[in-house]
Design goal:
heterodimer, A: globular, B: alpha/beta, TIM Barrel, nine-stranded parallel sheet, 14% strand, globular
Chain lengths: 393, 253
Amino acid sequence: MRYQVDEKGFYGDFGGAYIPEMLYPNVDELRQNYIEISESEEFQKEFQSLLKEYVGRPTPLYFAERLSEKYNTKIYLKREDLCHTGAHKVNNTIGQILMAKRLGKNRIIAETGAGQHGVATATVCALMGIECIVYMGELDIKRQAPNVARMKMLGAEVRSAQSGSKTLKDATNEAIRDWINNPVDTHYIIGSVVGPHPYPDMVARFQSVISAETKQQLLEKEGRDYPDHVIACVGGGSNAAGLYYHYLDDLRVNIIAVEAAGKGIDSGESAATSALGKEGIIHGSKTLLMQTPDGQITEPYSISAGLDYPGVGPMHAHLYRSQRAEFISIPDQEAMDWGLTLSQMEGIIPAIETAHAFASLDVRKFSPDEIIVFNCSGRGDKDLDTYIDYFKL
Amino acid sequence: MNRIDQVFQGNKKLLSIYFSAGHPNLEDTLPILRALQSSGVDMVEIGLPFSDPLADGPTIQKSSTKALKNGMTTEKLFQQLENVRDEITIPMVLMGYFNPMMQFGIERFCQNCKAIGIDGLIIPDLPVDIYHERYKNLFEQHGLYNMFLITPQTPEVRIRYIDEVSNGFIYMVSSASVTGAKNTFGDPQINYFNRIGEMQLKTPQVVGFGISNAATYQAATKHSRGAIIGSAFIKFLEKEGIDNIPKFVSSIR
C-alpha cells in the first residue's frame, strides 16, 4: 500500500482531476510543471529564504510540560500558530505565488471560508505586487468582518459569492468559474489539499515543511526522528497533510485525524466527513463528501469556520479507507473547552480548528513513554468574537 | 442507428435547446419537450440539476437551484421520462454533472437511459481520459453516446484525441467562459470556429455557450453543423412560459 499520490494523480481510489474541459489547459499546465519548478534549486532557494525570513520558520517544536504531566505522556506542539499571518496557511501561499510567477501569471484568485487562506493569499500578493481577488461567501463576509478588513488593507479585492449556500463551497465554485473565464493570465491559489490533481499533491508538498522540521527537531530532542503519534485537525486537511507528509509510509507512526462533529454526528449539523460522507466528486476531486442520496452536496456545520467543508482532501479519504489513519470527531463544546484548557495550561490561545485536535486527548489514551506531536496549526486571535460569545468573557 | 447520427445526416443546420429539468415547475419536463419538438427543434438537452454546477453561469445555476427546490431528482426525472418515446422522436441528450450519476450508480443510470431511449450524455466534469479508461465500454453497451467539449484553448493534439474517441458530435464551447448568453461573437470566436472547421474532424461540431439570438445562431452555424441554446432559452421560459416556446424558436431561425 502506498499513501502518496500516484502518477495519475490518485491516492488509492481518490483524487484525479474531474474537471470541465474549459479548465483542462490551466490544470494541465500546472500538472506538467509543478514538480520541475518546485524542485528546482532556484525555486527552493527563494522558497526556503522566504519561509525563514518572512514566515518565521522553522517554527518551534515545543514540549508541553504541564499538558504532558496531566495526561501522563509526552506531548509536543508544532507551533504553526507562530507563522506570519497566524497559521500554517502561508506556507502554501508562499509556494504557490512563486509557482504563479514562474508560470508567467499576473493575476491571482483564491477562495476563502473564514478568511485565513484569503488573508494568507492577499499577504503574498502584496509581497509580490500581484493583483489579488478573493472569493468569499456572502454569509462568511458578514461573519468574518475582521478578516475581510485585513484582506482589503492588504490590497486585495474581496468578491462576494452569492450562489448556492453562499459559503466556502460556493466561494470555491466562483473561483473556479473565474478561472474558466480567465484561462491565460490567472493562477488559482487553492488553500487546502483539495481540488483537482495536482493541487492536493502540490499543496501537501508546500506544507510538508511542517513534518520535515518535526523530524529534525525530534531527533535533537528525543534522539529519534519520529513520534509514536501525529495528530491534526482536518477540514480540507492541509495542516494535517503537512504534519503527516514525511511519516505517511513510516508505519511506526500512528496517524490521527480529528474532524469536527459540530453539534454531534447524528444531529444533522456536523462536518465529520469521514463518518457522514460518501464517495463522490467535489471541486474536481474524487473523495468522500457530504451529500444527499441524490448526490447534491450538502452544507456542513461546525463552530469552527475552517473545518466546515463538505469534502476532505483525497489523501485523507485514502488514509481513512485504508485504515492507515484513525479518525476521531469532536463536537463544538469539547473543542471550545479545549480552547480554554490550552490557554490556561500552556499560555497558548489556539484557533478553534486547532482546539479540536487537542480534544482527542480526552477520547484516546496514550502511554507514558509515547511521544505525540500535535499540529498547533493556528492561533485564536481570529476566533476571539466566538470565544467571547461562547464563554461570556 | 443512434438518433443523433440520423439527425446529422444531410446538410441541415441544427438547433438544439437545453433546459433544466424541473424548472420553472417540477412537472414541466414533458410539456417543454412537446413544445420544442412541435416547434421544429432538432435535438434537446435535458439538464439534470446539480447543487454545484461549476461550469455554468448565473442563469443555469439559478434554474438548477430552483429545480432542486421544486423536488427534482435523478429518480424523478427518469420517472417523468418513462414513456417519453411514445411521443418524442427527436434525439434526447441528458446533460449533468458526474456526482449525481455516481450516487444513482453509473450502470443503473445507463440502464435507465437505455430503457427510456436516451441517445447520449454530456457530462462536463467527466474528462475524456477517465471516460475512455473507465466508462466507455459501459456507455457503449447501453447504446449511449458521450459528447465532449472543446474550447478555444484546447490544444490541437487534444482535439484530435477527442475527435477520435467521440461519437455523436463535438460540443464546441464558443469562448473561454462559463455558460451564459451573449449578443454577438467577435473575431476571436469566428477565427476559432474557422480553425476548427479547417481541421476536417470526423465528428460534426455543434457550438454552444453564448448563443442567444438569430445573429449568434447564424454566426455559429456558418462554421459548424449546429448550435445549442441554453441560458437564453431558460430566461425566455421564465418570462414567457411554455405556450410561447414556438415564438422563441422562430425568433432564432
